[in-house]
Amino acid sequence: MRHRDLKNPSDVPDRGHAQPVHAQLMKLVLYRAVPTAGFRDGVLKPHPVTRRVPSNVPCVVDNLWEWLRPQNYPSRRHAAYASPTPELALQGASVRPSQRSQYVVARVQFPGRFAMVQLAVADARFHSDVKALPRMLLELLGAASWIDAPLQAKRVAAPLYAPALAREETEAVLDELPDASRVKEALRTASRFWTDAQWLTDEDGTLHHPEGELFFEAFDGYRLTQDPSSMASA
């Protein structure tokens, strides 16, 4: 069964954190652009333990994506981001031409286990879910009637708009909503984020989306090494 054809995370095969792709078999060359001031060539960056608040998508979308995330796919809360070319890495870091000298384009290297997916869009903020999910959720809550309702009536759903809810916390909030089963099924059906994502394995020598955003969890950490071509063009 292909992940791309699935809508319900419970239908996705468990890819267990014990057996993610191993770095020795990875064929792809990936890039990140980071500020020169904080760059440490070859130093291991450990897997983060704290959740990261999203900066490019609304918190409600981030919460729903985490709730819908298939088991053992990389969590955006603990992920790092990469690009298939140095130019896209600079774009992804929102580097202006005048700031180019303040950034280093580095290659990503994995000393051990990691899990990675790629989107078809250059940045997650361009995914259709970013507009579709908030609009649908508002409709499911009652649209104008919910917006105009007193604070007490909004408190049940309000946590969905808070930053970095755990999957279980989002589930608990949704379960408190009127007609919870219908609401959850509608959100599962509407979201395309994980079904659009391409799971990358050691067998993928080329990318299906030449300009698509990649994000990964590196369970044993990762290193950044300065790309020789970027040194020549800097």
What does this 3D model show about the protein?
- With 234 residues, the chain is an alpha+beta fold.
- It has one domain (3-233).
- It has helices at residues 59-68, 86-92, 129-141, 144-147, 151-154, 167-175, 180-190, 193-196, 228-233, and strands at 21-22, 31-35, 80-82, 103-109, 113-118, 198-199, 214-218, 223-226.
- Strands 1, 3, 5, 6 and 7 form a 5-stranded antiparallel sheet that branches. It has a 3-stranded antiparallel sheet with strand order 2-4-8.
- It starts with 20 loop residues before the first strand and ends with a helix.
- The model is unreliable at 1-19 (pLDDT under 50).
What topology emerges from the helices and strands here?
Blueprint: E1 21-22, E2 31-35, H1 59-68, E3 80-82, H2 86-92, E4 103-109, E5 113-118, H3 129-141, H4 144-147, H5 151-154, H6 167-175, H7 180-190, H8 193-196, E6 198-199, E7 214-218, E8 223-226, H9 228-233
